[in-house]
Amino acid sequence: MQPEQILAQSFTLPNGTVIRNRLFKSAMSEALGNRQGQATPELAQLYRAWADGGIGLCITGNVMIDRRALGEPGNVVIEDEQGLAELTAWATAATQGGTPCWVQLNHPGKQAPKGLNKVNVAPSAVPFRADMQAFFPTPRALTGEEINEIVQRFARAAAIVKKAGFSGVQIHGAHGYLVSQFLSPHHNQRTDDWGGTPEKRRRFVLAVYQAMRDAVGPAFPIGIKLNSADFQRGGFTEDESMYTIRALSDAGIDLIEVSGGTYEAPAMTGVKAASAPMKDSTRLREAYFLDFAAKARQAVKTPLVVTGGFRSAAGMAQAIESGAVDMVGLARALALEPDLPKRLLAGQAPRYQVKPIRTGVGPVDRMGLLEITWYTTQLKRIGQGLSTRPNLPALWVLARFVWAQLRAGKSRRKPTRLRAS
Questions:
Q1: What is the DSSP string of 348-391?
Q2: What is the pLDDT along the chain (421 residues), one digit of tens a residue?
Q3: How far apart are CA 50 and CA 331, in angstroms?
Q4: What's the whole-model pTM score?
Q5: DSSP structure string for 84-95
Q6: Could you identify which of 76, 80, 88, 249 might form a hypothetical disulfide with 33, taking C-beta atoms 3.0 to 4.6 angstroms apart as the criterion?
Q7: For the packed helices 84-94 and 41-52, what is the interaxial angle rounded to 10 degrees?
Q8: How many CB atoms lie within 10 A of CB 204?
Q9: Which ranges in 165-257 belong to alpha helices (H)?
């Protein structure tokens, strides 16, 4: 078969959910929520563009479960049903034409810029590396009571997502956010029931999954985005990731998206720590984490997705044909071309190639943060009904980002408790 024929094949999840093709829109940060943390018409327009563009399964950008714990300005937050009407409008647009759209639920933990939240929390009070401490404060260690509350916040948000009309949820367990921090022996240095051994470090993600499952029932899909590794010394390893995948599979997770890295080692953008350079074989096969996915496929039957590095229909089709994955994840390419799936399925090449975004400011470029911000700017343009700007200057985006952080720091929100509807 031709690559486009392979990518056009439908796929059925174990719970019976049918995905119309093998193209998976991975989460990207949109930062299009309003000041109250509610969804906006711009989000609806953006996701309508992706639904019209032919994607098989769409995952939203990270939606936070606590307005005291934002990852960036403009996050949508789900604590209660206060913004249900806005969420429903977003879901209606995102699922247009029968496109399944899942909401990615997240808590940033320590990985939130300085000044955004009153305090950042994490499994343990472990600071960022020295050259990043000007950007990120040292977090406060969570208490056991706070951990239990966060688990219930994930569950509550999942139930509201279902009520709004979205098709499923995804736990963000990758890229150095809170779930990922609990899994990492570097970030999680606890000696209680939530840390100290690999089994105890896995307890948080399994508790989050089970609470969400109890809240939404057996038929509503729950997936997870999980690191293959952190690519940090003393961090989450491939061996621990494989055990976590087995545990999640045994628990009944519906889909696992494989990624890797953190803000301190942003492998998800193609940049790894100096101690873990990218293999030539990875470059040739395009996908960053396909080797690991192939190992995971031998261990579990749970559907797998790999996101990161795909550049051509041939590379995507090869990943599917290898049997390592069931779908291929796209992200940054869809921020430049929302209709890319239709082009690929018609046998056409992408209009643009994803390239590294560089400012020339060493610490900023090493963190990979501008990769997120630059593409977020493209998403905002789509949400405003404008065309994308593939040649947008990186330094201009950096200046806008710094200004937004300063403004957000001046308007911190008051703490809130979990409220019943």
A1: PPPSS-------S-HHHHHHTHHHHHHHHHHHHHHHTTPPP-TT
A2: 999 999 999 999 999 999 999 999 999 999 999 999 999 999 999 999 999 999 999 999 999 999 999 999 999 999 999 999 999 999 999 999 999 999 999 999 999 999 999 999 999 999 998 888 888 999 999 999 999 999 999 999 999 999 999 999 999 999 899 999 999 999 999 999 999 999 999 999 999 999 999 999 999 999 999 998 777 677 789 999 999 999 999 999 999 999 877 666 555 555 444 334 444 444 444 567 899 999 999 999 999 999 888 889 999 999 999 999 999 999 999 999 999 999 999 999 999 988 878 877 777 777 666 777 889 899 999 999 999 999 888 888 877 777 766 776 555 444 444 433 3
A3: 11
A4: 0.89
A5: HHHHHHHHHHHT
A6: 76
A7: 20
A8: 25
A9: 178-183, 198-201, 203-216, 238-251
Q: Closest Cα to residue 127, out of 142, 116, 139? A: 139
Contact 169, 223 (CB under 8 A): yes
Please name the residue that has the structure tokens 């403004």: 407
Q: What is the CB-side half-sphere exposure of residue 130 using CA atoms within 13 A?
A: 0
